[in-house]
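Inverse folding, one chain.
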């Protein structure tokens, strides 16, 4: 595993790992006297226990190409990342293979896209490539360990296609 080619993020390609959060298509309904489109229920939040919480993350900007040093997963709950600007960020996911990450896939978001990683999905760390690095994160708040990390012995290089 030497390089991972980053592809544009699409709902279809990302479906095995989570939900793409965006305003694609028509709004589910109009609210506020027709002045606001509601794109309803875009993510499947899934927690074994605890509750949903909203946190703010301030991530350092990354430069491409970049090394994928590690992936992580959260066995007790899903985790949604919503950028607070319209800047792209790198999304990396990997299928589970007997408790370890399989071959990672790399994506780049379009302006206005966020992601929701399903519970237990291996994913890369938060990696904005421009903008302010500020994200709203919706995830599980509760007791117990909810983080597994897997460092790579030979970190692959993420390159933009």
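Residues assigned per position:
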């Amino acid at each position: 595993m030497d390089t991972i080619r980053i592809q544009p993020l699409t709902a279809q390609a990302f479906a095995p790992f989570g939900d793409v959060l965006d305003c694609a298509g028509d709004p589910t309904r109009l609210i506020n006297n027709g002045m606001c489109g509601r794109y309803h229920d875009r993510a499947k939040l899934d927690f074994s226990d605890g509750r949903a919480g909203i946190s703010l993350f301030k991530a350092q900007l990354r430069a491409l190409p970049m090394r994928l040093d590690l992936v992580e997963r959260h066995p007790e709950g899903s985790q949604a990342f919503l950028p607070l600007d319209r800047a792209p960020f790198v999304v990396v996911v990997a299928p589970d293979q007997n408790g370890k990450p399989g071959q990672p896939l790399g994506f780049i978001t379009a302006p206005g896209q966020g992601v929701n990683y399903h519970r237990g999905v291996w994913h890369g760390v938060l990696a904005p490539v421009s903008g302010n690095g500020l994200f709203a994160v919706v995830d599980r708040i509760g007791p117990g360990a909810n983080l597994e990390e897997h460092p790579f012995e030979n970190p692959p290089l993420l390159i933009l296609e």
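The chain has a mean pLDDT of 95. The radius of gyration is 16 Å.
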